[in-house]
Amino acid sequence: MTEHSENQFDPEKLLEAARQQATHARAPYSRFHVGAALWSAGRIFGGCNVENASYGLTICAERGAVMNWAAGGSPGTPLAIAIAARSADSGQWVEAMPCGACRQVLNELPGANQLVVWIWDGEGGKSTTLRELLPHSFGPSDLGIEKG
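Given the sequence above, the corresponding structure tokens read:
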């Protein structure tokens, strides 16, 4: 986790944090190194993919960042998440959107309707919203539960 003296959102800092997290990835099977950084309450919570020979036990970078946010006390409403991915074989940064499981986990965050997703494409960042990535989502309200 990185703290910033100001609470002002800075997409460049968030994208840089995601790129840094990708360097920590453990991806011996896919050789696809992914980093994620979640911005909440002026703080950045990082995550990287950690693969396992039992593929179902692999943790994606986005879910790792969300778990770090939760372990940090779930401060504030997350405003944005950035994702950066690099192929270990080519060394090139590639554009990578969150997988379906990560989209669903992000959908459970407070303020998910306003969450901005930033993607590093190797030259710059571009953004979309979680709503655009996961339209007609299933969530707590479908079960009669308020998010919290």
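The beta strands are 2-3, 32-40, 43-48, 80-87, 93-94, 116-120, 125-129. Try to locate this feature in the token string yourself.
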